[in-house]
Amino acid sequence: MYITLFKSKLHRGTITEANINYVGSITIDCELLEKSDILPGERVQVVNVNNGERFETYTIEGERGTGIICVNGAAARLVQIGDQVIIISYAMMEKKEAPRFKPKVLILDDGNKILKIKDKEEHGHIE
């Protein structure tokens, strides 16, 4: 049996751009993608902390070191520049693999710089 677990997370990223005139997706600084083990083109869920919107899209590499998190296309209507978001990727694995699996959780500051990298989440601990 396969189950789906969260694989990676960018916690409390800040939206730097919203571009409605783009085909679609979310552009993320390639350093953040690499450190979080999220691939270009990978499906992600985006949760807007400011307004509660949740949507799925795929990732595009943004310029390294810029801290860019830009929502493109129709989903740009669901965010505002400065909103905080949580970006989550998931992976399917055999149930027996799950107890040993360690996700990558990047805690970000307001400028989308990495404050901390964790391999688990604990209830009630925002960081």
From TrEMBL:
Enzyme class: lyase
Keywords in alphabetical order: Autocatalytic cleavage, Cytoplasm, Decarboxylase, Lyase, Pantothenate biosynthesis, Pyruvate, Schiff base, Zymogen
UniProt-listed Enzyme Commission number(s): 4.1.1.11
This protein's pathway: Cofactor biosynthesis; (R)-pantothenate biosynthesis; beta-alanine from L-aspartate: step 1/1
Residues that span the membrane, as ranges: none
Cellular compartment(s): Cytoplasm
Post-translational modification: Is synthesized initially as an inactive proenzyme, which is activated by self-cleavage at a specific serine bond to produce a beta-subunit with a hydroxyl group at its C-terminus and an alpha-subunit with a pyruvoyl group at its N-terminus.
Cofactor: binding details: Binds 1 pyruvoyl group covalently per subunit.
Catalysed reactions, semicolon-separated: L-aspartate + H(+) = beta-alanine + CO2
Coiled coil: none
GO biological process terms on file: alanine biosynthetic process; pantothenate biosynthetic process
Active site, per annotation: S25 (schiff-base intermediate with substrate), Y58 (proton donor)
Essential cofactor(s): pyruvate
CDD domains: Asp_decarbox
Tree of life domain: Bacteria
InterPro entries cross-referenced by the UniProt entry: Asp_de-COase-like_dom_sf, Asp_decarbox
GO cellular component: cytosol
Recorded family membership: Belongs to the PanD family.
Function: Catalyzes the pyruvoyl-dependent decarboxylation of aspartate to produce beta-alanine.
Subunit structure: Heterooctamer of four alpha and four beta subunits.
Protein name: Aspartate 1-decarboxylase
Organism field: Acetobacterium bakii
Lineage: Bacteria, Bacillati, Bacillota, Clostridia, Eubacteriales
